[in-house]
């Protein structure tokens, strides 16, 4: 039997569904396009005139604090994960320099999974505090007193630790240069958008200021001169040696800890990591060349993520600090993270938002559901090697204690004095040992 009315209804309904679907998709994609660039455009309206007026004159109208605000668009909102990987890779590339890898190897802190894990976790936290916490120590421009001194406490701790080792100024300078230019490079190669000239300039201004506060000498005056210096430095300072390979190997294993061995996934991840290296760095780390197909696979994966982000995903409404720290001063007010030693005043302690293979500074769960979740993460999914506990500093971290196990209890007063000199005024409050 024929039911012309029913068939007509089916055709009309299908047509309506197709029209509604196409219209909805078009509206959604248009919304993504409009919102995706809104923060980027607002930032450029705010600062572009300062960059344009002085471009090419060897001058800058952008302060380090303004540069940090400019960087926030890409690092906190648009591409936080990519920017975090870029900075991690910048540090990783320094292991191709024998004078750097020898010092790291001599510390004996990269010879076991536990020590590598702590060093990596601490280094990430310290650099994140420079990068995401206000250089001025003030949570808002209107703030008169320092209320968030994390950036300079972290920098002072690094300066104090570095003073214990014979690090060459050129090695400092090379590391600084990689922090300047790797974010720009990763955005260009793998991001959903490139960094604008203003943003690239802001990275230069910001990291040059960090270098100045670290006491690094002879920093090139312009980004172009700095890039030329890096090329010249690598031509003589980057070459193969066993310590390069060893330090890079231990760090790679830490980075890929969560990747399962199943179906050779971890080995594939190791090989893709090698594909991300420039040839001169790969050779210096004594890593084998990889087939062109794996290079294409790496680019396909990262470009696909970038395409989806750009055209299909709405932008973040809240900042993402690389899942390491909370940039707001509210995170400093948690009274549960205290060291309740009987012979000393309680000190405020912090916890990261992201944890490495050995979950350093992960608080011990207090609820049944929390205990079940962490048990499953360790025993079922293998995300961590151990349960959180006192041996992994589950009570939290203090910036002045970080990185070296041997020097954990040393230099605290020196670090605070150095931080106060960097700020130019005394520090008080939860993050200061002075009560």
TrEMBL record:
<feature type="domain" description="ER-bound oxygenase mpaB/mpaB'/Rubber oxygenase catalytic">
    <location>
        <begin position="165"/>
        <end position="292"/>
    </location>
</feature>
<keyword id="KW-0812">Transmembrane</keyword>
<dbReference type="GO" id="GO:0016491">
    <property type="term" value="F:oxidoreductase activity"/>
</dbReference>
<feature type="compositionally biased region" description="Low complexity">
    <location>
        <begin position="328"/>
        <end position="342"/>
    </location>
</feature>
<dbReference type="Pfam" id="PF09995">
    <property type="entry name" value="MPAB_Lcp_cat"/>
</dbReference>
<protein>
    <recommendedName>
        <fullName>ER-bound oxygenase mpaB/mpaB'/Rubber oxygenase catalytic domain-containing protein</fullName>
    </recommendedName>
</protein>
<keyword id="KW-1133">Transmembrane helix</keyword>
<feature type="transmembrane region" description="Helical">
    <location>
        <begin position="15"/>
        <end position="35"/>
    </location>
</feature>
<keyword id="KW-0472">Membrane</keyword>
<dbReference type="InterPro" id="IPR018713">
    <property type="entry name" value="MPAB/Lcp_cat_dom"/>
</dbReference>
<feature type="region of interest" description="Disordered">
    <location>
        <begin position="321"/>
        <end position="350"/>
    </location>
</feature>
<dbReference type="InterPro" id="IPR046366">
    <property type="entry name" value="MPAB"/>
</dbReference>
